[in-house]
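dumping these here so i dont lose them again. two proteins, back to back, each one seq then structure tokens. dont judge the mess
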Amino acid sequence: MRPCEYSPRKHNKRKVTA
């Protein structure tokens, strides 16, 4: 759950809930 992987407000394509 890192900010570069868990960021639905800007990165909604990688890991949103992983």
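---- next one ----
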Amino acid sequence: MVTLSPETPGNETLRRRFRVHDERQLSARTTLLEADDTETGDPVRVELFDVGGTDGADLTKGFRERLRAFEELDHPVLSPVLSGGMREGTAYAVTEPHHGAWVDDLIGERFQERVSRREALDIVDVLLEALEVLHGQDLVHGHIGPRTVTLADDGGVGLLLLAAPTGPGQGGAVFGPQDDVAAIAALLEAMVAGDATADAGDSHAGRDAVGRAISALVARGSDPDPRQRPADAVEYRALLGQTVRSLPPAEGRHVARAAPAERGAAEGTPPRRRALLWAALALVVALVGGAALWAVTQQGAEPGGALMPDLVGLSPEEASDLLAELPVALEVTYRDVRSDDVEAGLVTASSPESGHELVEGAAVRLSVAAGPLTVLMPEVVGSLEQDAREALEEEGFTDVEVVQEPSEGLPAGTVTESDPQEGETVPHDAAVVLTVVEGVTVPDLVGSSEQEAVDTLAELGLESRVEEAAGSERPSGEVENHTPGPGAVVEEGALVVLAVSAGPTEDEEDAAQEEDTGTEDDREEGQAAAPPAQEHSEEPRQEEQEQPAPCTSGSWSEGATYPEGARVVHEGKEYEAAWWNSESSPSESNEWGPWRPVTSC
């Protein structure tokens, strides 16, 4: 037995409760104990976190918030949090131990002896599946690494939850899901590389197909540019799945899986865990009898409960209808992701996955494909810069940089080179650099007054023509949009067409006033203000079915939810939603995206 050292925070009180067998220093403030709880007799892991210092109050608050959130989690890979509290200036959290060895103790030759590179990808997949649960609840792990991951001989993978507040993320920003992704990438590299040193120009992972795939995954997950890095565990796991499916199968000595096998009596299974295992077994037996009926009716296996149906490949509307038919009310949210396996606009994944039990009020998150992960670079060399931008936007490229170089014999703004080159397969959000013939760059005039825009163009040696911007919501006299658009490179003396707002029409103002008046009357008269249903004529119904006038839709609003068929105006164009979406900007949409351009305004 190991006794707590005098330097260990809170040792007097904690020594009386926990019989310590091992102690690991995880950071300057965090210590992990392997111990027996004298109150319950169960083996436990105890996280000790020193909250001393001037920022102690903030550290204590952060620890408690994470502890409370983790206590609600239930996942076989994540260490169950049993309790926690404060003792003599030390915050502590008690978790059930996962059996197995720390990856930190296995890295190097011992790791390769027991786990192949191909199987290391399976381990990462199990960890990402657990992270999906955290990220789906707006939580982060914050401490992923060889010191918090365990690996058992039977294939069980465990991830230790630490309530210690996370440090800053990349660039000093708040630690987020992308930082967890970077930590997973670093863990993968550590598992396959160990203590080895790669030769110049070589990779720790090797030069074969598996090695190249691992190197690409590590590079993508740890890319310093957050625009190139997967947004969270869902996106990184999708990329991992695509990579694994492209590799040849390999026989392994280790099969990674989420649920650790039950330990024998010699290992001292805690009574609480044994009771949970027997309860789980009884639940499975009860569910099997009703599985066939559920498959037909989509009803739960038990009264007051249900099983998560398989929603992959359905539209959000179909998935929502199917969930609404279950005998439990659910909190359903959606998010846009990229996928090469599922058609744009369809559900790519759900959290929880199909087959999981659902209870009343359970949170369900559906991932909807917003387009492929990778796209082909279109042919743009020889076209004008504005046409090249439009071609790139159609393919989903939004990060476009233009470099001007002098060239004889070609009009200004002609694309002479592109990086990536035509036909290359690149990530959908890859940056594109266009080299164009030197000329005059059109400034961004949107929001300027008509006179300011005309004067600015004249100073640059450009001609201008003013047209009315139909349906613009901008104040009268402001530029709604212009062609060529901002950043376009044109010849000196080229014509720029300015679409200028005429302000709201009298009909729109009258309609707004009538709507306000009607609202006040309704408040005063209540139900009596509504006319009988039979007094409605057919003519108004026909008017309601007519398509709205072009460019009269409201402006797109970030964070708003738009059902299929909804129309918005954004950056001088009107768009229509091809399917339900909430996080995609119309300007970043493409042929696979949720928005379809209707007309220019």
